[in-house]
Sequence to fold (574 residues):
Amino acid sequence: MSKHLIPDTLMLEERALHAINAIVGIADPDHDGIPFFAADLMQEPACMTHGDWDYGSSHGRMIDALVLARHMTGSAEGQETEEKYRANLMSFFKEDGLSYRQVSPAHDWEPNANLIDQRAVILSLTSWYMESGDPKVKEAADRHVAALKRIAIKERDIWYYPASEYKEGGWPSSNGILLRLAPDPASFCGRLVMPLLKYHEVTGNKDAFELCQFFTALIIERSGVFNEDGSFNTSLAYRSGHFHTRVGTLDAIARFGKFTGNAAMIAWVKKSYDWALTVGTAFGWTPGDMHEQAYEHETCSLVDLISTGITLAQCGYVEYWGTVERFLRNHLTESQLLDLDWVQQSEDRSNDIHGDISYYKVADRTRGAFAGYSAPNDFVCDVIEGRGHTNDLQICCLGSGTRGLFMGWSNTVTEHQGTVSVNFLLNRGSKWLDVHSYLPHEGKIILHIHADISRLQVRIPEWAGFTKIQYTRERGSIVTTGHGKESSRWVNRCFLLLDEAYEGETVTITFPLSLRTTVETAVNQSFVTEWRGDDVVSITPQGKTKPLYTSRVVLGQAPMKEGSLRRPEQDFIW
Fold:
């Protein structure tokens, strides 16, 4: 694709390319390519550590993330590492069809099929099969889904898992089944619905749909994970209202409600989603849970909010397009580790411990990863409350962060029944049109049309109003203009309707930028936040270790660069 001048503003595919560096870099060549799980960047020198999440969970997330990132970028970087990840994942399966944690050279945990791991496993197998069509991958996925169905405890209207680990001989405690003990249904059952549903959509697997149906009934009707007002049950038995697994469950159930046409289910999700938004910030920081980990935001939780918001917007709650764009522009991309000048790294492996810890070039290898725990104003969470400083990076957040980039990128321009919608005002290439975004420097986007479109609509941010919006359409020598005061130009509350668009046409839309200040509250702490449109440009007080939102430069005119936007021939819909 030929290069030309494009705005030097946020490009999610460029961020995905950085993520690939970290996904490949965290593999441990001295431990069969198994990735490290966590990193402590404040230690001198910084180190990466292995953990019991290294197996199905980590490999599943890395395979899924690489499939999505490669679709966004076209990059072939690290294929040898990717093949190792895939071979390792397949080796974790036992004859019963489940993925098992392995014996570790440095830790004494016992092999088991952890139920949280299984979600990442079927997620990766689904993306892998969608990308490759490999019948061996489908065979493994079918056996895995059958196993998940076989081990579920089945009652009249719900299914559930009675423990967090399954062993080759069966569940650890038959008494747990008799007492109907279902530890944290959101973690073990609710989040599984998302990849199981997609696998059903792709392959028609009936077991996958049945699991979705009964797990969803468990969560909504019987589990008590969510309170009547939509808030999260914060009791210790429910992981203190753990955000990642709660919102991940909302994402799953929203998708299932949309797939089955269940409006009541969508409304149920919306109620809880709206509550979740009240305990985070408008730019995307969320608590880790409601008690012990309250101060520790996981990138995983934010990506769950992004995905759930997109599904709700697709179901008609269009206000969430703006909510999600704020998350994409701010805490998701701000949580990606690109500047590592503050991290001290070792240039040799002399102090490494096999299967446990490495100090070797940690900064270089983790560039592009996402914050495992962050404060609203700091990449590093080192507060006196909660658990204090623990890890700065976790591989689950690298996988989720990459998926978040993909969800934003793949939903920026969409088509449905002949209508092409620009939902996020971000740079994006597509077979229909390219979006050139001049935000946050200028309130301007330019659309370059590549194919005739019968109906084109563009979402305008709520802060832009409508009286000052103007647009110019250029098609050859024909130039027409319009403005937001035309009442017939507005559909679905916030979309500017442009009707037909034609190959070769250029559409320029301009609007004033909103300059405002808000006070955002995070676990009873206040942060004065300055906005330019949907972008945070500063936060007070500033962070101390690796401050966030301090290096954003805003100019009167958007800087330009030579480049091009990727236009995949086939859409990859997740």
